[in-house]
Fold these 3 entries.
Entry 1:
Amino acid sequence: MMKYFIPKGTRDFSPIETYNRNFLIKTIKKCFKIFGFYPLETTSIENISTLNKKYGEEIEYLIFRILNSGNSLNKEILNFLKEINKSKNIIDNNIIYNFLSKKALRYDLTVPFIRYIIMNKDKIFFPFKRYQIQPVWRSENPQKGRFREFYQSDADIVSTSYSLWDEIELIKLCDFIFTELNLSITIFINHIYILKGLVEIVGIKNNLWKNFITILDKWKKIGEDEVKKEMLNKGITLKSFNSIRSLFSIEGDFKNKKKFFEKKFKFSDKGKIGLNEINFIYKSIKNISLYKTKLKWDISLARGINYYTGIIWEIIPKKCDDYNSIGGGGRYDKLMGLFGMKNIYGTGISFGLDRIYLAMEKEKLFKINKHNFSPSKIIFINFGYKEVLYSYKLLDTLRKKGISAQLYPSYSDINKQFKYAYDNNIPFVIIIGEKEIKSNKIKVKDIKNKIEREYNNVNDLINYIK
Amino acid sequence: MMKYFIPKGTRDFSPIETYNRNFLIKTIKKCFKIFGFYPLETTSIENISTLNKKYGEEIEYLIFRILNSGNSLNKEILNFLKEINKSKNIIDNNIIYNFLSKKALRYDLTVPFIRYIIMNKDKIFFPFKRYQIQPVWRSENPQKGRFREFYQSDADIVSTSYSLWDEIELIKLCDFIFTELNLSITIFINHIYILKGLVEIVGIKNNLWKNFITILDKWKKIGEDEVKKEMLNKGITLKSFNSIRSLFSIEGDFKNKKKFFEKKFKFSDKGKIGLNEINFIYKSIKNISLYKTKLKWDISLARGINYYTGIIWEIIPKKCDDYNSIGGGGRYDKLMGLFGMKNIYGTGISFGLDRIYLAMEKEKLFKINKHNFSPSKIIFINFGYKEVLYSYKLLDTLRKKGISAQLYPSYSDINKQFKYAYDNNIPFVIIIGEKEIKSNKIKVKDIKNKIEREYNNVNDLINYIK
């Protein structure tokens, strides 16, 4: 037989995986709704000119580009060849890309959301709260928990006014979701302005900010030695590195750390702003309960994407060997400006469905597993034409009551039909043969408990199987 | 401000559109489950070698190809140029495609499903019933109701034995879904072997079969004159065309038509097989109720895709000006064979979510419209820090009970906050100011009915808003 494969980094989801993923999506969606977020879906395929707006060069190798198709391709190939003849340089991917591809699969849900806002700004009432649960595609090297096609679940608040209640709502939302899922989490929180304050007081130059943030974000993945090496490489001095290293290691509860940094930020306005806002979050959350969430200020927390402007955060399962982020977010007040829309504030959170799935599986939190997953509650044995017609009346009634029931599709060996029920964990088998039709009885077999019963009417049967 | 666009034929879905689409998906999914179908999801990106298996050359211009990315592209471009130099012919899309692209977005859900079965055949218990609701992509010219990205909802039964109860179950499933949706439909049904019988008796040659089917499928779209022209063009004689034309116009109920064609198919074994099977469906369905469905034998019904081998059908809304298919399916017993798996039978149905959406909208069947669509049932006015902290206790209680409630995110002008509630159709506004905190009251305003009430505790409030 021929062999078939799926592309590297992509996945199929078996029935039980799909079921549990759907359960996650349903739960998260329910919570988004309870918090008053609108649903939204955007096209999978975006113009590259839109995607470029935010990501810039970094996407070069990360987006899946759609090849222009049909007749236009020939023209583009011809133009491309002319271009090459002119420049005598064929090894420039950009030229190739620009001729061959003008569209790509979306890379995240934030840029499509902002693009949607710009296109529909006259129809939207601000503050605009929306959630979006859709797949995104990245051509990264696949790793454990990292795939080329994966689902993001985002909730964002875009507003004409600046309010830290948005952050509080998102933290509450997070807590609500993971309370529903029964998964304890830690939210690590920090502030871009605190990092800016730190950079200021340890004397890292302004032009190294972007490098600093990008390398810092990798700390938990690559370790201190590697971070040190990379930072020194980029021109951060050993003295600066050591100072910031020692500031990162300040221990104690929030109050103590706050006190310490208040002194440190005496001459850093940026540091002060960051500290004030973190303090606001802490002070308010103390008065508003969280159930499954521990909030933790991590002064070394950075997020690689450089559009964040305020509070940033990352969600980690409480029981977690390695630093395994299952979501994160932050404030991005300048992002809409990049797209030409000024005085608009935004903050949002993104949940990684696959990461949550893995964490839930590890803690055995899914109720459905291979021992109890079944396509229906009931199966009718197929005894032949007359019996099937008779069974359909019962099937109809059961289905109308929302009870999942099916008929074994062909009239075949009874053992084979029972084996199908066993193999698929179907709990109840209904036996309606000639005898049962004559006596007007419904015979039902409880497979697991090996009990056989007879009922006179379908309502008694329904009560029994419930 | 800069302008942004989305690619031709793709769409964003506004909150209310997303809501109603989700309603459709949820309903269809519920019905699939009630009928005992397993859920399944497959990767969006397939190897072109897999897709080619079924569709062959027809997909050339219809699939969205993913451009190979990164460093490998240069090598491929170089090889491509060498190839061109060799052949002195650059205008062959196939050469270009093969070098630049080895993956593509899925084109339907059937081929991925079959590919999944082949890859997982040792883990699957047959009969395998699965549903799959995911987007597919086709680079066709966009038209009304036809898009480049759209959702399919498929239910298939793949089995080691042949049984027409599979068809019956799918027809029942169809009826169940559209009964839930309250949309009356007609199912037009026919049989490939009836068409083969017709071709036999009117003397159309075997080698014209594929052309005949493809042109016939377009009848409702392009009209009789155009069909005649195309058929004659392909070598079907005028006599054959006229004979088949007159056979298509046989009127009467099923019984009469059956009688008529029994005579006609006296010497056509294929015709007899088809007629017998159609008769089985009719006879059985007569004994099993359908609620929102009228079954109609349309002897001229063909389906363009040439892998069908038995019963074929198409679903049309009852109230429908033009022939607007909202779904269809059929038996494809030889499809698995193409992939190297013999003695496996398959039959399935595919629902077009967008077409159903349009039909539902036309008949005003969605309960949610722009006058009653709202992101939450309740909004709390934001009176400032102390009031918000107090409100959060109530918010918590409401949300835990599953009631959608939110807080206006910033402390701003009360009129602006009320306007937000109006604009978003939020039915209840909760007012908790200094006075209410002091008197321990909850003030609630019913926006639509302009009623203001006060409650002492949250349970009374919940009873009221329910």
Note: Chain B is about 45% helix and 20% strand.
Entry 2:
Amino acid sequence: MTFSPLDSALLGPLFATDAMRAVFSDRARIAAMLRMEAALARAEARLGLVPDALAPAIAAIGPDAFDLPEIGDQTVLSGVPTIPFVKAVQQKLPKELEPFFHKGATTQDIADTALVLQMRAAFALIARDLDAVLDRFAELAREHRSTPCVGRTYGQHAAPLTFGYKVAVWAVGIAEAAERLPSLCERTLTASLGGPVGTLAGLGDKGPAVAEAFAEELGLAAAPIAWHSLRARMAETGAWLAILMGALAKMATDVAHLASTEVGELAEPFVPGRGGSSAMPHKRNPVSATVILSAHMAAKAHVATLLDAMAAAHERPAGAWHAEWHALPQLFGLASGSLQEARGLSDGLVVKAERMRRNIDATAGLLFADVVAARLAPSLGRERAHRLLEQAAGRVRTSGSSLAEVLRTDPELSRDVPAEILASAFDPTPAVDAAAPWVDRALDEIARIRERLRAVPQP
Amino acid sequence: MTFSPLDSALLGPLFATDAMRAVFSDRARIAAMLRMEAALARAEARLGLVPDALAPAIAAIGPDAFDLPEIGDQTVLSGVPTIPFVKAVQQKLPKELEPFFHKGATTQDIADTALVLQMRAAFALIARDLDAVLDRFAELAREHRSTPCVGRTYGQHAAPLTFGYKVAVWAVGIAEAAERLPSLCERTLTASLGGPVGTLAGLGDKGPAVAEAFAEELGLAAAPIAWHSLRARMAETGAWLAILMGALAKMATDVAHLASTEVGELAEPFVPGRGGSSAMPHKRNPVSATVILSAHMAAKAHVATLLDAMAAAHERPAGAWHAEWHALPQLFGLASGSLQEARGLSDGLVVKAERMRRNIDATAGLLFADVVAARLAPSLGRERAHRLLEQAAGRVRTSGSSLAEVLRTDPELSRDVPAEILASAFDPTPAVDAAAPWVDRALDEIARIRERLRAVPQP
Amino acid sequence: MTFSPLDSALLGPLFATDAMRAVFSDRARIAAMLRMEAALARAEARLGLVPDALAPAIAAIGPDAFDLPEIGDQTVLSGVPTIPFVKAVQQKLPKELEPFFHKGATTQDIADTALVLQMRAAFALIARDLDAVLDRFAELAREHRSTPCVGRTYGQHAAPLTFGYKVAVWAVGIAEAAERLPSLCERTLTASLGGPVGTLAGLGDKGPAVAEAFAEELGLAAAPIAWHSLRARMAETGAWLAILMGALAKMATDVAHLASTEVGELAEPFVPGRGGSSAMPHKRNPVSATVILSAHMAAKAHVATLLDAMAAAHERPAGAWHAEWHALPQLFGLASGSLQEARGLSDGLVVKAERMRRNIDATAGLLFADVVAARLAPSLGRERAHRLLEQAAGRVRTSGSSLAEVLRTDPELSRDVPAEILASAFDPTPAVDAAAPWVDRALDEIARIRERLRAVPQP
Amino acid sequence: MTFSPLDSALLGPLFATDAMRAVFSDRARIAAMLRMEAALARAEARLGLVPDALAPAIAAIGPDAFDLPEIGDQTVLSGVPTIPFVKAVQQKLPKELEPFFHKGATTQDIADTALVLQMRAAFALIARDLDAVLDRFAELAREHRSTPCVGRTYGQHAAPLTFGYKVAVWAVGIAEAAERLPSLCERTLTASLGGPVGTLAGLGDKGPAVAEAFAEELGLAAAPIAWHSLRARMAETGAWLAILMGALAKMATDVAHLASTEVGELAEPFVPGRGGSSAMPHKRNPVSATVILSAHMAAKAHVATLLDAMAAAHERPAGAWHAEWHALPQLFGLASGSLQEARGLSDGLVVKAERMRRNIDATAGLLFADVVAARLAPSLGRERAHRLLEQAAGRVRTSGSSLAEVLRTDPELSRDVPAEILASAFDPTPAVDAAAPWVDRALDEIARIRERLRAVPQP
């Protein structure tokens, strides 16, 4: 298994994408740290603090030049992998350049900036998947704009709507999360450069200028003041990822239920061999929903860790910063797997309109009880109409007759129910018509947000 | 105690403000539900669906007209307090208006919109407190822009900076949370009106128009589609409140440590009788920090609940929605108490510049080891200089001599250390000068964000 | 609403019992603190440290003698309500006894011991409810020991079992939580008495003897060493309560689904007016399941807070201890409401055996696919048999024929399926017979655990 | 990095032990699944259900015979790695044995029982480390039984105690967690065997007998009823691990603070190169405390996930079970790293008794204020004595004089303070004497619990 299933050969492919795994691999980490140091060298060279030759010399060292287990062994001593990394780079640099390497910076500058570079690559992957998911769900909502379907509250049949409406709700939920991504990137894709205690004192009066140039070199924002111990960026990122997974989990909750045997209105896309069982040959388990729901469950816990880490003592805390490492990369991993499955669902969900129609009729007209009540309210009063329908519903349940029949024939109830009221009350058309404009509004909103998603920066 | 100390006569005043308590009182809840129903009546009257007289009739019923325990008893049956509330209003309305009351709406519309109205009032309180806290901390940062002070990493003395710089970091952390409040309000202060399954089918083709008018009546945004089961608004609000408390907790962590006996650089504002002990007459406990830190600890847990609630089944879930009620109001309560204490701290923090200066000298020059190392790097190489200083630091610790002395007199080390390098290395002035521009940047940022805070809507 | 719905007149009755509310009321808190001080006085009198008259004098002060809001106002200053409480008692005591009051103790001793006394009362309520729930569910399992019913995995029909078996699983889950309660009580119902820093130094060499006598007076355990900053007792209590709610939530998850419209195998007990809707007169929402599920969601978050509070600095922390107050009483409140609803469900759950039987047949024999596969394995090999049934299941889904028919008539498949194998494969009797002994084992286990529950101490 | 730092070559060695990593490796997972299947074959052979040759044939397949990435790819389809594992084993078995393989079992039986076997190995590692930590901390407590030291509450000097007392508190905290391990093992080291829906229907009337034999073969407990969807075992395990880490975090919190520059009473064990900084050559960061504190922060979040997973639908849930995989193994990994560092600390903590003594005197006698107040109480009354000392403490702070001096010379205060009262009040001996018996009690408790720890089963 490995400690995290995301990192396991056996389980990893189920829970995270290969692309996201590559972003957070040990090798990618080393590459990001090298990129950070090279950018620092370029920035400092621009300000005359280090030789121009330093940056190319750093860039010439590839991520494969490092002995990862050796660095791991030394991390046990140093408490942070950046220290053995810095030493290893120093040994690889020409002697005359070595004194200028890492000038003015501290371990956290490397670690945090490298992480931000990884986050940028990760956000780009997420944006791409989000766009695809929204595209397909929008299409599905449009297609089923008028496919009647049961609306359910508290697990009970409530009133009719359309399947396109349901999909539109899912898609708006996902889109509303997506909409926040560009501004999240603006805030969080920020370079970290502060030196030992944040003031870049080792650079004399050139600290702010180097910090600006450094951020520019990497295409990142520059912070007004060092964020070594201001961790809202990480907490906000984590919360956003969990909210995104929550939006996907809302959809997966519905899919799993609609695909359940008794409901049968949906099936996950058919992939040969998918969703089988070692014991039950007939099973087609909702694997995508399972992955999305489990990701959401695991995700929210990591957010608590990131929030916790905000109470960071002084210029660098003993514990709170390290705790983030246990939470943030896994959130990206979980999100990647969740989106991968959402793409699968949005692409190939099997919609059974016929079964939806049958389920509408399954309660012998009770699904339209609120319509009838509303029609009776003007004459009977709202409360009395409501009570009358409550009684009628009870008789439907015990007698097996339909609501229309009960209301027409029950000696007690029928008095108060003019026949013309019943004539059209059990037709789902008004419900379908009422759902349609919301689908249209949703599609507009999704199109607008997909447009905005293009602002997510590329790595 | 009551189940939550926020609601306790004994403990409540310590943990939440009276103003916030009023916003989330049972009475305020009823008032918000009435306000929602009146707005619905006005909106529907504008579209000709209900008589004009309905809204004033609702408005005429005050929140004190309800028997709260009676509603509570019926909530046990209904599972939501809005149902007995609706019944109670129906009984109080003139018979001819009753059939039009609550037209097209469902319980969740009332409950969620009422909550949003309470949130608007709560956000306004928070914005006011945030503005005050930022104002005072900005002032404090300016005042101590050049007050030298120890920078600490991992609990150890690291390098000098200024107390103004530390305060600027706190304030930027709080300001960065504050900056997001206006856009959070835009997204979350959204009316909820969807009827039984979200489509407002009971209003025929006037659903979207009524929804827009309703939102307008209340000064709230209108959603593109019903958000009955799209709960990102609540999760995002909770995450934001927890992040705010995290930013305050960063400050409180530092304050508690700086006010500890051995450090002694700060004291919480002197209030007669505050921070005493039943056993130890000399104690002055950091009560404000205690409240802020405990609020942060409790807050992050509630966020997990709100994230959890996002996996809301279909058109209304059995459990997930109710779970929010256990989390969101408490987050506002905790935030109010946290901000109240932050205001107290920002107003009257006792700063002991003299002690700060003494603490800089407490390590016999080790605080300047990185400065010396940086000066030696060009001649010795970065790595060798670093190692030399590591050795020297060891001797300082065992010998009791100062770092300057060790470097000047140690037979082994002094060879490599030119005297001129030591001359000025132990002067905190460069560290103070390096900190200053960051304070200025921070002050600009805070001023900019305070300006933006004005966009937070008033209730 | 109040900050916590548990404390609300509108919502509290839905979410917590009145009995539990009384245990955690402000008044009960004062009463517990008085009881603690009186016990301390008795213990110290036994060892000759204070006059015998002190304890009766304290006992004579009733909890109603205190001005709660006045104490609340002073709590803002002191940071803990025990300090104004101590002062108020001092003023009420005869002058000659006052110097002896609270001798050697500190605020946390009062607060924690009072809390433990409240916990004892709360545990007794929980034990009583647990016993009732187990009694009724055992009865229900016995009654439906042979009622055939669908087993479901991943939301899909899997294979038949009995409804009694399902109930037995629920009950064992609840019983396994219950089993741990007596030992939890042993560990957690421990007196706290340590004085300022835990050593009871103010009592000279009589510290340990007083601590033992004090615990004895209250019927509590004595700790080997002060637990002021050893908070596992609270964390373990919280985890246990959440696990209990988890066991109830497992049951509620199943109930809500089995009571859903399409499944229809259960209904929550019929209580007139229960589970209605303001808009939909036919609704019968699963209110009990809703309460239990929402309690579980909220509960787990509080556990994180209690775990967090374990990292308590030195002899008393600034924040971590206070954070517990936001979590522990609410967990008891949530558990009380959850158990209340579980009692309701266990008492009156409506079981629809006929519908269960019909659902078994709903998949045209697919529910028995694993039986057929197992019968074919000896001749075909396990893997080939499995694949054959996978293919047959696909044809059942597309053709509408039953599995028996497909296996008998499909030209490709029928070759490998001897007719005698199909003869009895679709009879649920073997599944019913297989379930029965597990129900019996479960009933024995439940009976054994109910016996053990009697060891829970009474307040 | 990998998604979890526990799995990273760069960071893993810092956060988890190699031994624990081996327990949770993919290879160990495969080995545990094979062991499970072989035990099932032996149990079924005992009951005449499968040939005797099956078990040896399974045992002959080593864990290295599997293509892990190939299984990973198929896990994406199946949703659980046990399905491709079962297929792979089937292909490796002799044709005549294949039909009998995995008889009556389901995927979750393999996965859960394999996990339980891994847990047993993990618990044994933890028990060994706990024993070592308790041994060393007991020794340290004994050694410093009479080393005077400051007691601190709310970060403030409170009253004196001994360092041995502090260590005894840490050790009792850890021991109390340890004490629960044997009974936790009893409950959680339970075999899982239920077949498709828990009833082992595929084994006819031999289900319970096979389940018992199977458990016996593995040295595990047998459950009264299938625990496929009763997940308290996992939640309880997770809560226990987090509580253990909480107990260690209490110690690490104290160590980090006592090792801070201003306090200086402790240093982490000296290991060359440990705790350095890339920028600050003089730094000796508390790496062990950092690891322990970050593990605790991350751990508590995972508990929430495990609690969440308890609401498992029916006979196997879609999501909740998979979510556990993201939480439980990481908790073991975090615990291993935490204990590894605790062993390091308990072995080599550098105690600076001299500095402890100096810190006692740092507040000019205020540390003894409660002693003086207690001595004055009989004559002045408790409250007046308290107030007098509060005033005196204020003068000490402003004047720089010692408390003894103030009380002797202050015109206002000295009247009420007889000289003989001051004579011995500032001697720490009574505080030392008061602490000693608690240390002894703690040592007895620890010895008793270490004895009990031997009951933890070996793998």
Note: The first strand of chain B starts at residue 148 and ends at 153.
Entry 3:
Amino acid sequence: MNILDIPTPALILDRERFMNNIAHMRDKLADFRIPLRPHLKTCKSVQAARHILDGQPQSITVSTLHEAEYFLAAGYTDILYAVSITPNKLKQIQNLQKAGANISVILDDLEAANMVNEEAIRLGTVIPVLIEIDSDGKRAGLTADAPSLLNVARQLQEGPGTTLAGVMTHAGGSYYCKSTEAISKMAEQERNAITSAAARITKAGLPCQIISMGSTPTALFAENLNGVTEIRAGVFVFHDIVMRSLGVCKTSDIALSVLATIIGHKTDKNRLLVDAGSLALSNDRGKPIEDGSYKMGQIVDVETAEPYAGLWIDSTNQEHGLISLEHSNYTFNDFPIGSQIRIFPNHACITAAAYPQYYVVDGSDKVIEKWDRCNGW
Amino acid sequence: MNILDIPTPALILDRERFMNNIAHMRDKLADFRIPLRPHLKTCKSVQAARHILDGQPQSITVSTLHEAEYFLAAGYTDILYAVSITPNKLKQIQNLQKAGANISVILDDLEAANMVNEEAIRLGTVIPVLIEIDSDGKRAGLTADAPSLLNVARQLQEGPGTTLAGVMTHAGGSYYCKSTEAISKMAEQERNAITSAAARITKAGLPCQIISMGSTPTALFAENLNGVTEIRAGVFVFHDIVMRSLGVCKTSDIALSVLATIIGHKTDKNRLLVDAGSLALSNDRGKPIEDGSYKMGQIVDVETAEPYAGLWIDSTNQEHGLISLEHSNYTFNDFPIGSQIRIFPNHACITAAAYPQYYVVDGSDKVIEKWDRCNGW
């Protein structure tokens, strides 16, 4: 199948770039001898996971219990569900355990630890739990010096429905860094937080086997990972415009794109229309481009994936993308109606979630494989 | 099944509100004796369509060919595909025709009309085409006074691969109106554009049977629909925060919401976390609230759907929604970890697309039905 024969919009994955991105992360972590527990919320694909985990420990991170079920069915048993657990989800966790999963969950609250313990007892199971540590103030977790940290740790270790498996953190703050130097500092801040929390726990005589941190930026720009037992990262396998704007990847590393058809020439507005809109691209705004404006994706050549200078998705409706020719040297003649382009996404994880599959290409216009995805919850 | 037993995040549809919204649109259009060709891109659900079309002409509008296939399989044969057609999609159109569809398409360009004609001849079929008219400068279409309008019309009528079925427009500009009076004016602008275009075509001796306009705001606030043969609208069946902010609906008309679980208390930031993030809610920013900030959804009671004053989804990550308690009178005690809320979406069409089904409730906490959706392309 030729890429031009795929019904649009569609999700295109460049296998060579994908494989290079995996190799780059492996090389980076090999220097530190730290294993990767990839976050599969980005690819949500068994065929992609086979490559990411080839020859590596078969440990994975997921963001939904649906992902856990899907990857377990494919043979991945060592699973970290990295969104705070609540009692109403423990029956699903138990079902995963019964199906063979060694699944760990996270939480950051004493009341939650108590409730999870009680529900696990009621269900007749024991749940391994990591305590989430806040290393950047951006989302969830107890700070490493939080007074309640040891109470939560003790509750998890002593409650018969839970075991204390370790600590984890995610420095999403790295997405707001202004330079790769700042990302390196954020990685050190992340490492400091998680190892300090672990030290408090072990000093109190409690176990803390797993000391897990990670994000694609901090994983790739960390200079010191002493005391960390595993790294989690997800979007590094595809990269995207946000990662490029952070200096975390180059344009030629972006492996994911959306194939779209030129469906209109709005000549009185000097604007192209494509059949990729809010649903095909997502409404993730990413970061502003040089002129301060927000764009919804970058237009690249359908075969070479080379960017067209000055061409972006300026705005979207449900099934329409609008591309101004105003700030480019291109004309309507360069984009006949019915011809195709590809679009680099702002945020690969979110854009990919609209599609049931990847059309995998390998540096040419031939589709070599189709890989599936597990979306939803 | 009780609403509290649904795994979260999930899509909840209040059937009573949905039915009232349908009745309200019917009453409005009955005054003008204009039939509705509902845009099913919002609901994408056969079970929903049965109610929307109950006792009405069985004509529908779709935004993807996948919707066309899905609704055709359910018996809806009179279909308008309302996104500009291109030659590479005609094989799919022909397959729909062979399966029994009377499907019309749209375009707004002479070159496109030529290419569609040639490809239809090559395939051995004839495609009914409406010309898209630009009534608001927002997206696609020829203006009613465009010199090329009659050339396109003539090409469509004379090309053996096409027939000229009429004209259509969509006043998406109504989404930017500052008052319902402005929406009424926009409806008149839309009507003027589409009837002027039709008049030029018929004056040139060409047929123009269908004169189609519509958007939820202009359909509900039009004061004159003379000369129009059908109205298209979609989001009116669910409504959402954007429709409310336009004055097009009331809070008690919003029929769609996302069920979510409170997964964290970030006490040092006075913030709740829920398991509905970018994927569960979409990143559609909608319109700013009173203080000028953009929110990603409004928090409402899980059973009554009454809004909690001052509580919004302030920001999202892939699977996390963050809710500040700062500008409310609520405390963490009002939202125990593991308890549930519902969230009104900014833009119902986009939020719903993340889910394979609706859990339908009827003014209580009981799930009475599940309705499916056809997402993707």
Note: The longest strand of chain B covers residues 256-266.
